[in-house]
Design a protein that fits this description.
The complex is a heterodimer of chains A (388) and B (107).
Chain A (H helix, E strand, L loop, with lengths): L5 E4 L3 H12 L6 E4 L15 H4 L12 H6 L2 E4 L4 E5 L4 E4 L4 E3 L2 E4 L3 E3 L11 H6 L5 E5 L3 H12 L3 E5 L12 H13 L3 E3 L4 E5 L2 E4 L4 E3 L2 E4 L3 E3 L2 H5 L8 E2 L11 E3 L4 E5 L2 E3 L4 H15 L11 E6 L2 E7 L6 E7 L4 E8 L2 E8 L2 H12 L6 H5 L5 H4 L1
Parallel strand pairs in A: 1-2, 1-7, 2-3, 7-18, 9-10, 9-15, 10-11, 17-19
Antiparallel strand pairs in A: 4-5, 5-6, 8-16, 12-13, 13-14, 19-20, 21-22, 22-25, 23-24, 24-25
Chain B lengths: L1 E6 L5 E6 L5 H7 L19 E4 L12 H7 L10 E3 L12 E4 L6
Parallel strand pairs in B: 1-5
Antiparallel strand pairs in B: 1-2, 3-4, 3-5
Bound molecules: flavin-adenine dinucleotide (FAD) and FE2/S2 (inorganic) cluster (FES).
Cofactor (chain A): FAD
Keywords (chain A): FAD, Flavoprotein, Oxidoreductase
Protein name (chain A): Pyridine nucleotide-disulfide oxidoreductase
Chain lengths: 388, 107
């Protein structure tokens, strides 16, 4: 029902955008955006980039000034987490005991880092403030978070070692070609890598590996993946499977309840996936707002992602996981190239390093479902511009 | 503070006092001026903060680097001689009075 009261749980990237999009689409009823971090909604990507580096401050992280929420009549609760959802009464209860009624509920609770006892993780502003790089740094996990942290630490003059359990970096998210280049760039900056290496214990001043190796460490940061915040959904009896399961319109097993962003598991082609990206949070939020306002359009955006390390800009269009064939364009030796990832003949996505134009065009191509085949890309002088 | 005028495609405009140090993009965002998407948050990698600098502008703007030049070739609204990425122009006191036009679409 359009204009009926909406409650959004989680005032992060997705939740904040859902509230903004609802107003942009003309929702006139009450909107309550409930957060638990005690600060205005803010962006996380700079926490392992410019903010960690000290180039920008908290004021640069917030999406919108406080006046935005008052001017747009969005009730923003900053530090009172939802502790339970009563789906029969359509009511959420906050830690303070305060209750809010809804007609439509949006779960935008995000995810939290998998912890390693004794190691820092980075999800919030406070986390980043407590993990300023110093001395000998060990980053556990060669994923985006760990590598971005390693880049900032190495630029700050730290001695950096990355410990990864898999045989290579970024194995869940990037092709071997792209990931190999990223590791090379780090090595050239003096960052050391230990692959096939498991951490057995983090002690004060050192990290102990499963094979007995002891690495001295002044600061240990873990970036070994996240777990979706699904506890409220589980308690409320909604379908959950590593993420709150949603249909093509981002509805959970209860049609009055939606889930978006890091906490949602949704349909992507023939698969069900969960993504942790700004794009996913923002586009799902816009979609959910439209659905609440009566749209029948299912969610169908092309996923994309970026990561900045040193001056290197890595961008992914599509989801390249599961590819069995790649074609590289540009020249990895110059540090600017793109890797087209195919599952047999079907283009899954394109990974670009310092090639933002390729990235923008690849997104358009994927959105338009253009039939790009490996042999087309492999032709010398292939120009995405003519294909798009 | 520098006064920046953002002219919307429908001809209306928003005049914003932008604190030097912020980009033209960030200035619009902080004042809730719609029409600049800035999907990459100012990284010169998305091309969704496209603006047209007013044709009569005489104020000094920073030179364009390769990434910006490349992205301007693939923006959603067509590139013109006065096209720029607003995230790549830091506001200075000297830019007080600058007028920029927002494109029809960013995506
Ligand atoms: C350090 C870092 C760097 C990143 N870099 C990039 C990048 O370069 N590019 C990119 O695309 N993505 C990046 N991401 C990922 C991106 O930030 C996330 O995917 C995005 O924030 C997800 O949005 P969300 O709203 O789902 O979750 P969040 O932004 O995490 O928001 C969820 C909010 O809900 C709150 N919450 C949870 N439970 C409750 C409750 N019961 N009651 C009230 N509030 C609750 C949480 O405290 C949190 O504030 C990065 C993430 C991190 C942590
Ligand atoms: S904000 Fe992305 S290019 Fe300017």
């Amino acid at each position: 029902m359009a204009d009926a009261p909406v409650v959004i749980i989680g005032a992060g990237q997705a939740g904040c955008q859902a509230a903004v999009s609802l107003r942009e689409l003309g929702h006139r009823g009450p909107i309550t955006l409930i957060g638990d971090e005690g600060v205005l909604p803010y962006q996380r990507p700079p926490l392992t980039k410019a903010y960690l580096q000290g180039d920008i401050g908290i004021g640069d992280l917030v999406f919108r000034p406080e006046t935005y929420y008052t001017e747009h009549d969005i009730s923003l609760v900053l530090d009172d987490p939802v502790v339970s959802v009563d789906r029969v009464a359509r009511r959420v209860v906050l830690r303070s005991g305060h209750a809010v009624d809804y007609e439509n509920l949006v779960l935008a609770t995000g995810s939290r880092p998998r912890p390693i006892p004794g190691a820092h993780t980075i999800r919030t502003i406070g986390d980043a403030d407590f993990a300023r790089p110093e001395g000998r740094v060990v980053a556990v996990g060669a994923g985006f978070i760990g590598l971005e942290y390693a880049a900032v630490a190495s630029e700050a003059g730290c001695d950096v070692t990355v410990v990864e359990a898999q045989p290579r970096a970024l194995s869940r998210v990037l092709s071997e070609e792209t990931a190999g280049h990223v590791v090379q760039v780090h090595r050239r900056r003096g960052v050391k890598f230990l692959f096939n290496a498991c951490v057995s214990e983090v002690r004060p001043g050192e990290v102990v590996l499963a094979d007995g190796t002891v690495l001295p460490a002044d600061l240990v940061v873990a970036g070994i993946g996240v777990v979706p915040n699904v506890e409220l959904a589980v308690d409320a009896g909604l379908a959950v499977d590593d993420g709150v399961v949603v249909d093509a319109w981002l509805r959970t097993s209860d049609p009055a309840v939606f889930a978006i962003g890091d906490c949602a598991r949704f349909h992507h082609g023939a698969r069900q996936i969960r993504l942790e990206s700004v794009q996913n949070a923002v586009d799902q939020a816009s979609c959910v707002a439209a659905v609440i306002q009566g749209s029948a359009e299912p969610y169908a955006q092309v996923p994309w992602f970026w990561s900045d390390q040193y001056a290197m800009k890595v961008q992914i269009a599509g989801v390249t996981d599961g590819h069995d064939n790649v074609v590289v364009t540009g020249d990895p030796l110059t540090g600017a190239f793109s890797v087209f990832c195919f599952a047999s003949d079907r283009l899954l996505g394109v990974e670009s390093v310092n090639k933002p134009v390729d990235h923008v065009l690849a997104r358009r191509l994927l959105a338009a479902n253009c039939p790009i085949r490996p042999e087309m890309v492999a032709v010398p002088g292939f120009d995405l511009r003519t294909a798009a | 503070m520098a006064k920046i005028t953002y002219v919307h495609p429908d001809g209306t405009s928003s005049v914003v006092d932008v604190e030097p140090g912020n980009s033209i993009m960030r200035g619009a965002k902080l004042a809730n001026v719609e029409g600049i998407l800035a999907q990459c948050g100012g990284g010169a990698t998305c091309g969704t903060c496209h603006i047209y600098v007013d044709k009569d502008n005489t104020k000094p703007l920073p030179a364009m680097h390769d990434l910006e030049d490349g992205l301007l070739c693939v923006t959603a609204s067509p590139r013109q001689d006065n096209s720029r990425l607003s995230c790549q122009i830091p506001v200075t006191e000297e830019l007080d009075g600058l007028v920029v036009h927002l494109p029809e679409k960013q995506l």
